[in-house]
Amino acid sequence: MEKGQVTIRDIALKLNISISTVSRALRGMADVNADTKKRVLEMARELNYEPNQIAQSLRSNRTNTIGIIVPDVQVHFFSSIVSGIQKVASKVNYNVLFCQSGESYQTELNNLKALIASRVDGLLISLSRETEDIEHLLRVQQKNIPLVLFDRISDDIDTSKVDVSDTDGAFKAVKYLIDTECRRIAYLAGPKNLTISNKRMEGYLHALRAAGITPDEELIVHCNSLKEDAAGATAQLLSLNNKPDALFCVNDPVAIQAIQVIKKHNLKIPEDISIIGFTDDPVSALIEPALTTVAQPSHEMGQCAAKLLIDQIKGYDGTSRTVTLDTKLVLRNTTKLLNP
């Protein structure tokens, strides 16, 4: 036998039986007698035989594989989502192919083409920061490939989606700042095209107006790059003649960078300025001072998205559904305590 992957032909030659008999025995067909089936399975183990997944997928038109695209796997939030997806997929014997866009629209397109070429049965996607045109997603639907969006979603496509209550979470955060007597509350936002940033903006504005506070445009600063722009945006706010007394940040990485800048300006947190983030990244509890934040159930989000997708793949549910998960305000040391 030549070196390389063992095939059913190799097993057939070893046992001097037909290839079709080996194939039927491996599939557990009833027309193969018990003795032959036992010999085939023993020889398969001896030769370390592995089924040809490509051949099987061509026969069944299924690969039992789902594709995932996230913006940045180094962000704990997304790695936790992927873990949730993997947990659900493994239970139903589905494999996972994983890609990251690096917040690039073009890379997202390339990832999508690669996953489709790999014949995935369905796709789970969280859109990149640059993604505004969703034509590539519409083409996925035209190919009848099941699709679920999560976290970074688009309202311009009718497909199943999983998100969190961004607006309500932001409202709860800003209301807490108001309840602790903050009045000049700034919002360090994400890019203007990012849906989650805009939903959190809605909650921010709603909380201000509900408290009779007129929103101030100079207190809203957009960070086009969530990693690189937060420090400059914070410095911009601290340079105002009438400085903010609180910052609500679109996510924890932005809030953590803001904390570093505030420290360099020799301001005390939360005595001079309070800060609330959004995500509940594990590092948020470890920094000094520990960050008050809005917790998102990332692992649960991944599980929910995977279940929706697998139900579509298996034909259990052909309707589009949007599942919105609750958030929770986690109080730590970057905010004042409520007066008793």
TrEMBL record:
Superkingdom classification of source: Bacteria
Keyword Transcription regulation: yes
Domain HTH lacI-type: 6-60
Pfam family for this entry, one: LacI
Keyword annotations of the record: DNA-binding, Transcription, Transcription regulation
InterPro entries: HTH_LacI, LacI/GalR-like_sensor, Lambda_DNA-bd_dom_sf, Peripla_BP_I
PROSITE patterns in UniProt: HTH_LACI_2
Keyword Coiled coil (UniProt): no
SMART domains found in the cross-reference section: HTH_LACI (SM00354)
PANTHER family found in the cross-reference section: HTH-TYPE TRANSCRIPTIONAL REGULATOR GALS (PTHR30146:SF109), LACI-RELATED TRANSCRIPTIONAL REPRESSOR (PTHR30146)
Protein name per the record: LacI family transcriptional regulator
Organism, scientific name: Fulvivirga kasyanovii
